[in-house]
């Protein structure tokens, strides 16, 4: 058992395996898992439903201010509640996936999200995954991991996931979407996707989920002793 509770930041591009291993690590350490991507997805979902102009940061910010987003650990999976409605499935749809990086570019939206995320991480004992966790949200996180994998491998992983769930899926289209989202996330002006200087990079392309989780737990163990 670790002597003290830590904050573990896991960042990286789309479908690198962040949430999968973050959940495993959190369960093993009995930490809280916080999926910050789900928060950006939830506000994107609400904005689409309300026909908000996704290029209008001020309007999105006003919408976010009057919106509650709750992440709750269920028996099997983490549930996402948007103003008390379970949107766990809805926020993974194609429309949200294609638009979320546009919403996440706005400074006002990010400022409000970061405020909420810092509040959630204050008590430590958290595994938080996203794009700017180690670089911006919790710059003093005790453990910072940056997960990468080739675009081809990431698209194949998502394709497998979609097929398993019975969703229509096109590998080439997934590759294009992942590349486009990575580009938007990396090139945006405010807290872009970047590896923090003190983050440990793990290339997961040829590693199993178990191998990646074990590597992270080993790093955590060294830090926590
Ligand atoms: N190391 C790995 N090897 C093979 N498949 C993986 C690995 N890590 C994650 N996956 C699978 O890849 C898909 C995307 O992983 P996910 O955790 O959702 O990525 P992210 O949170 O980075 O977007 C999931 O279906 C997951 O089961
Ligand atoms: N900390 C974060 C987390 C997500 N995001 C945005 O939210 C999108 C969806 O995040 P996600 O983690 O659900 O993405 P996947 O890689 O799981 O598809 C990302 O592509 C980013 O545009 C962000 O800007 N900052």
TrEMBL record:
<dbReference type="GO" id="GO:0006220">
    <property type="term" value="P:pyrimidine nucleotide metabolic process"/>
</dbReference>
<feature type="domain" description="Cytidylate kinase">
    <location>
        <begin position="8"/>
        <end position="221"/>
    </location>
</feature>
<dbReference type="Pfam" id="PF02224">
    <property type="entry name" value="Cytidylate_kin"/>
</dbReference>
<protein>
    <recommendedName>
        <fullName>Cytidylate kinase</fullName>
        <ecNumber>2.7.4.25</ecNumber>
    </recommendedName>
</protein>
<dbReference type="GO" id="GO:0036431">
    <property type="term" value="F:dCMP kinase activity"/>
</dbReference>
<keyword id="KW-0808">Transferase</keyword>
<dbReference type="InterPro" id="IPR003136">
    <property type="entry name" value="Cytidylate_kin"/>
</dbReference>
<dbReference type="InterPro" id="IPR011994">
    <property type="entry name" value="Cytidylate_kinase_dom"/>
</dbReference>
<dbReference type="GO" id="GO:0005524">
    <property type="term" value="F:ATP binding"/>
</dbReference>
<keyword id="KW-0963">Cytoplasm</keyword>
<dbReference type="InterPro" id="IPR027417">
    <property type="entry name" value="P-loop_NTPase"/>
</dbReference>
<comment type="similarity">
    <text>Belongs to the cytidylate kinase family. Type 1 subfamily.</text>
</comment>
<keyword id="KW-0067">ATP-binding</keyword>
<dbReference type="GO" id="GO:0015949">
    <property type="term" value="P:nucleobase-containing small molecule interconversion"/>
</dbReference>
<feature type="binding site">
    <location>
        <begin position="12"/>
        <end position="20"/>
    </location>
    <ligand>
        <name>ATP</name>
    </ligand>
</feature>
<keyword id="KW-0418">Kinase</keyword>
<dbReference type="GO" id="GO:0005829">
    <property type="term" value="C:cytosol"/>
</dbReference>
<keyword id="KW-0547">Nucleotide-binding</keyword>
